[in-house]
Write a structure and sequence with these properties.
The protein is mainly β. Helix content is 11%, strand content 30%. The chain has 2 domains: 76 residues, SH3 type barrels (Roll), CATH 2.30.30.30; 58 residues, no CATH class. It has a 5-stranded antiparallel beta sheet with strand order 4-3-2-1-5, with no helix packed on it. It has a 3-stranded antiparallel beta sheet with strand order 7-6-8, with no helix packed on it. The radius of gyration is 17 Å and the shape is elongated. The chain starts with 9 loop residues before the first strand and ends in a 6-residue tail after the last helix.
């Protein structure tokens, strides 16, 4: 589990736009100085998804969530107790069927023993949700039975 997960739930202020993605840097004048909550870790721990506290009408295109590099943020103390997810999302694809699997952090095998890959846009950072429509039925069965040991 990366150290970046411990930053989820922290309040943060955007102080510069030197290392963030180009799509975020394009709106630097409106985003610098904004405060928000770190809601997810993206790009294999290299960036944060920040939910801004500002009114959506004051933000570029009304977007409240922005991908910001850690070096461009000033982190404050956590808002609440936040712990890393027990399982993250991995996917497998057979022909045209895509399945989301529950994966113990730091591994590349789902709890149903299927080989999986990280999601291409954000790595292993999304928490597994059993309500996802494409969730693997075997993973769901193992989680509901409680036969999978905690990671």
């Amino acid at each position: 589990m990366s150290k970046a997960w411990s930053r989820v739930g922290c309040q943060a202020t955007i102080v510069r736009m030197d290392h963030s993605p180009a799509s975020t840097c394009a709106h630097r004048s409106k985003l610098i100085g904004c405060e928000g909550l770190v809601v997810a870790v993206l790009r294999n721990g290299g960036a944060a998804l920040l939910r801004l506290d500002n009114n959506e009408y004051d933000l570029p295109h009304g977007v409240r969530r922005w991908v910001v590099a850690w070096d461009d943020l000033e982190l404050h103390k956590p808002v609440g107790a936040s712990k890393p997810p027990a399982y993250v999302v991995g996917f497998s694809k057979k022909r045209r069927v895509l399945k989301y699997h529950a994966v113990a952090p730091g591994t590349k095998v789902a709890i149903c023993s299927a080989p999986v890959k990280p999601l291409p846009f954000c790595g292993w950072s999304l928490a597994f949700s059993p309500t996802t429509p494409r969730a693997c039925s075997e993973c769901l069965a193992l989680l509901t039975e409680g036969t999978v040991p905690a990671p």
